[in-house]
Amino acid sequence: MHADVHHLLHAAESAELRSKAGEFRLPRTSLRTRVGWTLVEVGLRLTAQGRETAAPRAAAFHPA
């Protein structure tokens, strides 16, 4: 296949894929929603860290 033909086919296919990809874009969310989900993520990370640090203390407790 000649390079020119290959380039034309590639350009046509990429234009088609770009037009189809526009249909699947997620709508832009508001700042309030993004900040809310960021706070949820931070909270989940903090609780996961809390469990890792609390585990050795709980394991060291031996009831008499």
Describe it for me?
This protein has 64 residues and is an all-alpha fold. It is elongated, with a radius of gyration of 26 Å. The chain starts with a helix and ends with a helix.
The radius of gyration computed from the alpha-carbon positions, rounded to a whole number of angstroms, is: 26 Å
Shape: elongated
User: Main beta sheet, described?
Assistant: none
Mean pLDDT: 81
Low-pLDDT stretches:
none
Kindly list the characteristics that best describe this protein.
elongated; 64 residues; mainly alpha; single chain
What is the fold's blueprint, element by element?
Elements lengths: L2 H19 L9 H30 L4
Quick overview of this protein structure:
Helix content is 77%, strand content 0%. The protein is mainly alpha-helical and 64 residues long. The termini are far apart.
